[in-house]
Amino acid sequence: VEGTRFLKYALSTDFMQKYLSKGYLEEKRIASLRAQFSRNKPFHHLILKDFFDEQFIHAVANELKKEEFAYQDADLYSFSQTADFSRLSSPILQEFYHLLNSPAFKQYLLQITGIQALGTVDCSGFLYTSKDILLPHDDYSDKRRITYNLSLSKDFTRSDGGALDFFDRKKIVVSFKPQFNTFVLFKVMEGTTIHQISEVLSEKQRWSISGWFNDQ
User: Fold this and answer.
1) How many CB atoms lie within 10 A of CB 38?
2) CA distance 203 to 171
3) 54-96, pLDDT tens digit by residue?
4) How far apart are CA 14 and CA 72, in angstroms?
5) CB–CB of 147/126 below 8 Å?
6) How far are the Cα atoms of 71, 95, 109, 121 from residue 101, in angstroms, in the given order?
7) Mutual orientation of helices 27-39 and 103-113 as an angle, nearest 10°?
8) Which of 3, 4, 138, 153 could cross-link with 178 by S-S, CB 3.0 to 4.6 Å?
9) What is the C-alpha separation between 117 and 121, in angstroms, rounded?
10) Residue, of 149 and 10, whose pLDDT is higher
11) Across-strand partners of 161?
12) Torsion angle of alpha carbons 42, 44, 48, 49, nearest 10°?
């Protein structure tokens, strides 16, 4: 059994080396990330900077900007969004989508979070421009287990807005400005994982890919 476990780990590592930045697949790093995930507050989360292979993620970002975005506007939010990646025709975006859906990537998430999220993955591209916003909410649904957000924006400062904010008792306690190739993920918990995308306050464009790992 022990030998089988290491064989599976080696096979998944070989696959993932094409897509993840050097160092993220080291066993010591994985153990460290899992410890961070369990202790991070106000709820379990990780901020993985320079997470994906640089050449791969630049290709993903370039292809995303060629896609059609539909403007969405409601009481809770205003932004533009692509169709789910499962329905897109771009080979590179399909490759990214299949990476997230792969058993190897889901096994990796299980290793660093301890959460089984083996169902389908929801995945869309998002564009926030001036005055766009996503108000505080918890992302909860029966099937969602992990929320993820991949930032594909460059040169954002605090004054530009568009930060991903985490709340504790109606107060922002953690705030991340958009930073290219930063993969943020957190455990979805009803009434607890309150977060928002703050209003974009400049003419800069906030690009991202976001969605959920589900158990169904």
Assistant:
1) 11
2) 27
3) 999 999 999 999 999 999 999 999 999 999 999 999 999 999 9
4) 40
5) no
6) 26, 10, 11, 6
7) 60
8) 153
9) 9
10) 149
11) 200
12) 0
Residue 14's pLDDT band (cuts 50, 70, 90): confident
Judge contact between 178 and 127, C-beta under 8 A: no
Residue 197 DSSP class: E
Phi, psi of 103 (to 5 degrees): -55, -35
Task: Kindly give, in sequence order, each residue whose CB lies less than 8 Å from that of residue 11, ignoring residues fewer than 6 positions away.
Answer: 104
Kindly report the three-state secondary structure assignment for every residue of 65-86. CCCCCEEEECCCEEEEECCCHH
Six-digit token string for 49:
């900077």
Report helix, strand or coil for 208.
strand
